[in-house]
Backbone:
């Protein structure tokens, strides 16, 4: 397919974001970012801690708002959406996986995977069907009744991926998905992301400072001091 004909699920133009630190000084987290991601593409954004990677991911997920710039996700211009509409985007268009997994430790694996479906008001029988289906795909069937707090880091990451996938989003965003894992488990998680993007034509955007994940990227970008460059 000609690059000009590709279907882009994320389009960002001239994105800026600043914060004030504890002393009142302005920290420029993102400086004029231009970025795009195509359907079925896995992009790894590599860079050191504090370079702006997580801020970029949260803006794409609608969790933070930029100072200026255009952010189009799944065909929606986030600048025109209110908080309820942004929450809808996160529950249907984007699956966001934070570094700490974002799971509810006291709930079971099945209950954690089901949460986005409950929020979306999906009927019980359909919820159970989808949870069972995605658990089988991810390889969690034997763990469904286990409380999340009893799982290993690799198992928790798989539950987080299953929960992100259960509403069949167009886009998966993962913040440092291998940070708390040994390389054997990290490789398994990266292979899982690879299968997800191939099987579902999902756009997968991963931010990481782990150089080992870069081998899995269709495109590798580097972030340093709030600026993004193609590697």
Residues:
């Amino acid at each position: 397919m000609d690059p000009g004909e590709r279907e882009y699920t994320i389009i960002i133009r001239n994105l800026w974001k600043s914060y004030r630190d504890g002393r009142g000084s302005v920290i420029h987290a993102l400086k004029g970012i231009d970025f795009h991601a195509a359907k079925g593409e896995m992009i790894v954004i590599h860079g050191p801690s504090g370079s702006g990677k997580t801020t970029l991911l949260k803006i794409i997920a609608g969790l933070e708002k930029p100072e200026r710039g255009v952010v189009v996700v799944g065909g929606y211009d986030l600048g025109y959406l209110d908080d309820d509409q942004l929450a809808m985007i996160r529950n249907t268009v984007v699956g966001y996986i934070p570094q700490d997994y974002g799971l509810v430790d006291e709930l079971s694996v099945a209950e954690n995977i089901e949460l986005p479906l409950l929020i979306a008001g999906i009927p019980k029988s359909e919820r159970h069907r989808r949870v069972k289906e995605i658990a089988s795909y991810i390889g969690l069937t034997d763990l469904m009744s286990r409380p999340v707090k009893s799982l290993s880091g690799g198992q928790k990451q798989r539950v987080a991926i299953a929960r992100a996938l259960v509403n069949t989003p167009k886009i998966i965003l993962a913040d440092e998905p291998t940070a708390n894992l040994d390389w054997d488990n990290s490789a398994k998680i990266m292979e899982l992301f690879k299968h997800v993007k191939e099987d579902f034509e999902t756009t997968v955007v991963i931010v990481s400072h782990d150089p080992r994940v870069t081998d899995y990227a269709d495109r590798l970008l580097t972030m340093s001091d709030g600026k993004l460059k193609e590697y």
